[in-house]
Amino acid sequence: MKIENFFTIYNSTEKSSKANFIEDFKNFLLSVDKEFKKSENLKKEFLKNENIPIYEVLVQSQKAKISLELLTRLRDEVLKAYNEIMNMRI
Prior knowledge:
- It is built from three helices and no strands.
- It is mostly helical.
- Helix 2 (15-47) runs antiparallel to helix 3.
């Protein structure tokens, strides 16, 4: 997962930077989804008694959990910023 690309500072005056932000956010969401799918596949393979060590299953499930927690915190911060903007007096 390439989180460092997501946290790049963007210049809001350039049109290309807005497109980069949207692309980076989309890629971040896809990487979170990929982590969860990989975790689910490892769990299924482990339960089918295939030759997969338990530590790989646990590590992958922790990666998926951490990426979801990061996504949740980002969502909370975006909602908080949106609410602040909406509550501003003009």
